[in-house]
């Protein structure tokens, strides 16, 4: 993953935001929408593209564009920084490969202890029965 190339491929769009800001909300476009086309990116390898398309399938449009938005702050610049930071966190989290689970063996002592407990409870229940003559 080449961050510099990816940053140059990002597209930003400013739109009017809802929320805090009073009358300023109606005049200023402070919400920022980040768009990133995964398929056409030259900053990602083919393997990384496939991994992202698989893991972020529910966040990607039919055209293969990943969109994130931020309207947390009243400043357009701060919202741009927030959405860019969130984008790179999402990318790095999605590109991490999960560790392969190694099967562990149940120790012999644990098996023996379990069998002893079973035997003990069986004997206890057996002792509750009426004796047969």
UniProtKB/TrEMBL annotation:
One of its GO terms (molecular function) is hydrolase activity. Gene3D superfamilies: 3.30.160.20. Residues 100-133 are annotated as: Disordered. SUPFAM superfamilies: Peptidyl-tRNA hydrolase domain-like. Residues 113-126 have a biased composition (Basic and acidic residues). Residues 16-32 form the Prokaryotic-type class I peptide chain release factors domain. This is Aminoacyl-tRNA hydrolase. It comes from Flavobacterium okayamense. The lineage of its organism: Bacteria, Pseudomonadati, Bacteroidota, Flavobacteriia, Flavobacteriales.
């Amino acid at each position: 993953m080449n961050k510099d190339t990816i940053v140059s491929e990002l597209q930003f769009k400013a739109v009017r935001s809802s929320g805090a800001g009073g009358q300023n909300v109606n005049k200023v476009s402070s919400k920022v929408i980040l768009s990133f086309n995964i398929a056409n990116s030259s900053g990602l390898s083919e393997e990384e593209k496939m991994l992202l398309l698989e893991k972020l399938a529910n966040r990607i449009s039919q055209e293969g564009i990943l969109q994130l938005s931020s309207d947390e702050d009243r400043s357009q610049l701060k919202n741009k920084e927030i959405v860019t930071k969130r984008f790179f966190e999402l990318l790095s989290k999605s590109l991490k490969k999960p560790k392969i689970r190694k099967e562990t063996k149940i120790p012999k002592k644990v098996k023996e202890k379990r069998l002893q407990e079973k035997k003990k409870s069986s004997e206890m229940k057996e002792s509750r029965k009426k004796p047969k003559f």
